[in-house]
Amino acid sequence: MNAIGQAFELVLRWDVLSVMVLASAFGLFVGATPGLTATMAIALLVPITFFMEPIPAIGAMVTCSAMAIFAGDIPAALLRIPGTPASAAYADEAYAMTRNGQAELGLGANLFFSALGGLFGTAILIVAAPWLAEAALKFSSFEYFWLALLGLTCGVFIGATNPVKGLVSLFIGLLVSTVGLNNPAGVPRFTFGDVDLMGGIEFIPAMIGFFAVSEVLRAVVADIRLAGVPQLIRGSLFQDWGRLFVQYWPQQLRGNIVGTIIGALPGAGADIAAWVSYAVSKRFSKTPEKFGTGHVEGIIESTSSNNAALGGAWVPALVFGIPGDSITAVVIGVLYMKGMNPGPTMFLNNPQNIYAVFIIFILANLLMIPFGWAAIKGAKEILRVPRHILMPCILIFCIVGAFAVNNSVFGVVVMLAFGVLGFVMEENGIPVAPAILGIVLGSMVEENFVTSMIKANGDLAAFFERPIAAGLGILTILVWLSPLILFLWRRRGSAPLPGGSSAP
Amino acid sequence: MRLNDAVIGGLLLALAVAVFLSARTLPDVPGQRYGAAVFPMLVACGLGGCGLALTLAGLRHWEGAVTPAPWMRSPAAWGRLSATLLLILFYIAAAEPLGFLPVAFVVLFALIVLLGGRWWVAALVAALVALVVAKSFGSLLLVPLPRGLLWL
């Protein structure tokens, strides 16, 4: 029996498939509700996946995130309020299309190209992950140290408006990861003599606090009611697909590629992919003046991109255990708890699990077409659920979820603390995503750093002796220096240059 | 709320110093030069560096320690925020002695009313959601939710 056959047997079971269907409905609802993000959908789902086998758990998370990222487009088009941050880049454009009476065309394009983008990201995942895993087998603690550091670095620098605040968030996350007994010397560290803290700060309650409770608190202070009731979508969503595909295939392909790459870069996910792709589309468009007036071109490119990013984010997550975005950060935490430690050895020892992930990805993106169609048709009902009822229910789910991880009230305390911390951080322009990366990767960075230091007897040069480690190290340091290099480049560019040559 | 960067920077700097000093006392791996202390000390250095950078940047653009966000001028928003936090604290304190069902009902009911729902809608939704959550988590997923005074 080969691994691919086993993988099909793992996935094509009624329990896995029904979990995926339920997760689709949940993901579509959360994604389509403004103020609830895809990451929050995952955060609320994790306590439930906790009680599942690994494969249905992965199926639930993959399906839910793919559906949520697509569904964010629905209120963006109908109300000009992006359902998730990943749809913010083209919310104005999509709403303009709706006002021009082209809601069917716009939402149809969102649905079709979201699914295509997701499938493209999956294809890259299928090709790239095993290939990278082979290389990763030769890695030692030096390479892993640099990889983890590179991941954290990308998380801070990509898409951050203020890199210093990104760094603050990252260091807070790393600091949180040092709490407890799990350290090289096995001594209680920063536990203040508290027994609960000795086990370390549990990742799941922290994440529920960061991504869900802080969101509830924001909704509580903002007191926003939904602006207007969306119209019903009557026309056919499918009629323009062939024409759009023929006319815009280069944009679609470019969106797919950019999205997959940005997704694979640690720390940057679907949100940033959509912004970059929208900008790229406008920059290279033959008709940039039409952008912003309800033109479908930029929507196609960026809606492809944000769904492609989801697949891309799983490449470093599966191969190195380094999350490509905040969703995979959560997934990695769950995989560890399930004993399915991500890393190259998983490709050797349990290839059927890897293939099962691939199959789940393909299924999720195919399911998106019928389920997405239903969500668009039912958008009016979904968007009518009142927020003053929704938010309290979410809070109770958060509390039960944080409790269920260890069956202890301490989880709820951690959740509350991180909810307040996340709320205050976001209010002050400090992003929370790098902190989650820090919490997930902290022990990996520390372990590989201390092991490497002991191996090298404190000689920092050893971090650059192995060729791949040296390459990764230089790359990391280059990213650190990039703000400085950019600054110097701009100064050189703005200064008048002799000889008439000019910087681009 | 927008605290001035210098205020955040100062707080971070203080945190970094505290972490550094307390990490220095942590023991090494027996027989090795590196152990539990080195990583937190590095993190503290990084945090301190960021704190310093934010302090300097904040002092250059000083416009008072706090620039209130729009919602902060509304006492009602403060009331809703503190009530939400108090309700979570109430859950933490009361769930064990009173049990999940009554406490979850109170939290849901109070929060829905607080956010502008009608009281009878709130009572209905709170009762229904508390029961569904208790049944699905408590009986299906076997989470030992606190039973307290009242259970199904």
TrEMBL record, chain A:
Q: Does the keyword Transmembrane helix apply?
A: yes
Highest taxon above the source species? Bacteria
Return the protein name.
DUF112 domain-containing protein
TM annotation in the entry: 20-46, 58-78, 111-132, 144-161, 167-185, 197-217, 313-334, 354-376, 388-421, 468-489
Q: One Pfam annotation, family name?
A: TctA
| Domain DUF112 stretches | 17-437
Which keywords, in A-to-Z order, does the entry hold? Answer: Membrane, Transmembrane, Transmembrane helix
Q: What is the lineage of its organism?
A: Bacteria, Pseudomonadati, Pseudomonadota, Alphaproteobacteria, Hyphomicrobiales
UniProtKB/TrEMBL annotation, chain B:
Q: What protein name applies here?
A: DUF1468 domain-containing protein
Which keywords does UniProt give here? Membrane, Transmembrane, Transmembrane helix
Chain ranges of the DUF1468 domain: 7-146
Pfam families per the UniProt record, alphabetical: TctB
In terms of domain of life, where is this protein from?
Answer: Bacteria
**UniProt xrefs under InterPro entries:** DUF1468
Give a yes or no for keyword Transferase in this entry: no
Q: Which residues form a coiled coil?
A: none
Give the organism's phylogenetic lineage.
Bacteria, Pseudomonadati, Pseudomonadota, Alphaproteobacteria, Hyphomicrobiales
* Annotated source species: Methylobacterium isbiliense
Task: List the transmembrane segments.
Answer: 35-56, 77-94, 100-117, 124-145
Keyword set includes Cell inner membrane: no
